[in-house]
Design a protein that fits this description.
Number of helices: 8
Helix content: 40-55%
Number of domains: 1
Number of strands: 9
Strand order of the largest sheet: 3-2-1-4-6-7-9
Length: 285
């Protein structure tokens, strides 16, 4: 029997990877803003220890790679709160190493979480949003989702996938009254560069020392010295959801803004340089 609580909440948020890091901070910000939160993660005890006990909080066990668990978590959300208004697909981890250095098992495990896990949860939540003709799907990408870089090529490929999925969803869901946004954080001062969130390829190839090797060394220096304030990121998520016309893409951090500007300028310059060859492949008029 469903035990749906009175609708006294601003919105109902469903957040994956909510036991720590950015996910936990977004959950805290959403709760403080008067929302109900379904906080999903592999470790429910850690969620309760971090977020406390509240009628507005529903901690649920969720390994996003398990579609059955995703369905069970969503059913628990509907049973308690009646709906989900905002989905934040935040669960994921990184892989640092040159493309050739990254082992198949690590690549596949990352895709299972960052891409296929995101799809598992999204497919589970969307039917309720469609039934209500409203909702907002927020997929957490990265600075690496807009431009790939040495040392993070395979990780970036998962975020490129998230970007493409979100762009298509934005077009598919807009006529149904549902919004879709991909959020592109730069380097924020979280534990992303710790072993708990980042797999470092164990095989090192000397030929890549000046490229991915340099990125490995820089990542260790940057760990816990990143320029972005994660509490401000969480606050920005509230503003995003409150916006009457939210964007398809939301870069967060001056480093992401700079990376986007640099890539856009490079693409423009290269396209201009090669446009004659590019245009030569059509059938003759």
């Amino acid at each position: 029997m469903a035990d749906i609580q009175p609708r006294g909440f601003k919105r109902v948020w469903f957040i994956t990877g909510a036991s720590r890091g950015i996910g936990a901070l977004i959950a805290e910000a959403a709760l403080a803003d008067g929302n109900a939160v379904v906080a999903a993660g592999r470790n429910v005890t850690a969620i309760v220890e971090r977020l406390g006990d509240s009628a507005a909080l529903l901690p649920v066990a969720l390994d996003v790679t398990d579609e059955a668990q995703a369905k069970a978590a969503m059913q628990a959300a509907v049973d308690k709160f009646g709906r989900v208004d905002v989905l934040v697909n935040n669960a994921g981890f990184g892989l640092l190493g040159a493309v050739e250095e990254c082992a198949d098992k690590d690549v596949r495990r990352m895709y299972d979480t960052n891409v296929f896990g995101l799809l598992n949860v999204t497919r589970t939540v969307l039917p309720t949003m469609r039934a209500n003709c409203s909702g907002h799907v927020i997929n957490i990408s990265s600075i690496g989702g807009y431009r790939g870089s040495a040392g993070f090529g395979v990780y970036s490929s998962t975020k490129f996938a998230v970007e493409g999925i979100t762009e298509a969803m934005h077009a598919e869901l807009k006529p149904l009254g549902i919004r879709a946004t991909v959020v592109e954080p730069g380097y924020f001062r979280t534990d992303f560069l710790d072993a708990s969130s980042l797999v470092v390829a164990p095989d090192v190839i000397d030929d890549y020392d000046a490229t991915s090797g340099a990125v490995r060394r820089k990542a260790m220096q940057l760990n816990h010295n990143q320029p972005g304030d994660p509490k401000k990121l969480a606050a920005a998520m509230i503003r995003l959801v409150d916006a009457p016309t939210p964007p398809l893409r939301l870069p967060l951090g001056t480093d992401t803004l700079a990376a986007i500007a640099t890539k856009n300028a490079y693409v423009t310059q290269e396209t201009e340089a090669w446009k004659e060859l590019s245009a030569s492949t059509d059938f003759a008029a």
